[in-house]
Amino acid sequence: MLLYTTYQTPRLQYVIGFISEELFDEPLETTTRKEAFLLKDGFRLNYSETEFSEDEFYLRPVSLLFENDIRPRTIDCFELNYHKVFFETAGDLPFDIFAACFYLLSRYEEYLPHAKDEYGRFSHTASLAFREGFLHMPLVNIWLQEFRKALQKKFPAMAFRHRSFKFIPTYDIDMAYSFLHKGWKRNLGGLLGSVLKGKWTAASQRIQVLRGRKKDPFDAYEWLDSLHLYCRMKACYFFLVAAGKSRYDKNIDPEKKVMTDLIRYHAAGYRVGVHPSWQSGDDPALLSAEIARMAGLTGNKILMSRQHYIRFDLPDTYRRLLSSGIEQDFSMGYGTINGFRASVASSFYWYDLEKEEQTSLRLFPFCFMDANAYYEQKYTHVQAMIELMQYYHAIKKVNGLMVTIWHNSFLGSDPAFDDWKKLYEIFLKEEVYWDV
Using an 8 Å Cβ cutoff, are 283 and 289 in contact? Predict the structure, then answer.
């Protein structure tokens, strides 16, 4: 299919590339030559101010993709086929799907002045998706299905790319063990704290683990191996390897043999990435050091990352990751609520809105994190299962990519999370297992 536009811009090229990858086997051809477009045989898409004929698919553009600045704008949403759209226009679709996709994928609103949460991150309450009630939907993928139907109506013989549902289980190893390998000072302090607070069960558990009578409650690694083997799944693990401790970085010393062995073991059988510490968000040198440490431990170049506490700022964090050799990032989501931060259930390249260029950093958005459901949304395991299944069915319906985040602390032997461990096992074995 040939697309005609009056002007070629980096923004337009970016969104055309994304839509081409999602819908077609080959990239859309584009031209700014009206004569060549009118003489073209076959499928034609006119993205300009002027409609030429009924034989073309016509979409009148709004101005967003032809601008090169970042400024506040009023977004008026309206309903189309029971879901939200915006950037109303004329043509074979009643909204500019190119501009709307770009607005959401580029995270345009995160470059504007915005509300921050208690950790200084972009607050989900400031997002259009939250305000308009579509945070729980892979809206971009839904739009693309509507676009495909509209194109098929205009061009019944048109062929499209076949896509299938995909699932990537991912794990953040913020703290590899609850009691073991922390040293006597940290364990003594923890034990005294439990006693002073009257938490006798926790105190007893710590003593039994340290004496070798019980398994550490965060040790879920063998169980996960068995689960992945049964479900024939390849998981991704992200390890926090900060050299120094801080309020939010409380991992076990990465230089300890138990940690080096754990990381090397997983690197041999899974894809592993770095989990940049909270401290590294304020010190780019620390980020480079942590990536180098992971590379040294695994013997491989580290290409994947996910920010600890989902702490990132656009564009600075992603630029630092790129300069450090990271090619894939799994941080696109919120650390305060589950849902679709970029309103999409597909991987996509990050667009640097300030530099006006598509980058080589590919983003893999997640929709569900155990910590969000438990700590932030205050869900029971039953409510969490309902939410997880809602995302699963929504993504499956659009043949999208589902990425979830779990922590080893939820999947070990801690009685507080026993039902959550069962929830995850049921989800993988009885739902996702049959789709991957």
Answer: no
Burial string for 423-435 (b: 16+ CB within 10 Å, else e) reads: bbbebbeeebeee
Looking up tokens 């155990």 gives 370
Q: What does the pLDDT look like over 24-72, one tens digit per residue? A: 998 999 999 999 999 999 999 999 999 999 999 999 999 999 999 999 9
Residue in the block written with tokens 């704008």: 73
Question: Do 298 and 264 touch, CB atoms closer than 8 A?
Answer: yes
Assigned CATH class of 166-178+216-434: alpha beta
Distance CA 318, CA 265 (A): 28
* Locus of tokens 């579509």: 134
Sketch the domain layout of the chain as residue ranges: 2-154, 166-178+216-434
**Is 0.70 surpassed by the pTM of this model?**
yes
CA angle 373, 374, 377 (to 5 degrees): 55
Q: How many CA atoms lie within 13 A of 165 on its CB side?
A: 16
pLDDT band for 183, please (50, 70, 90 cuts).
Answer: low
Strand-pairing partners, residue 305, are 274, 329
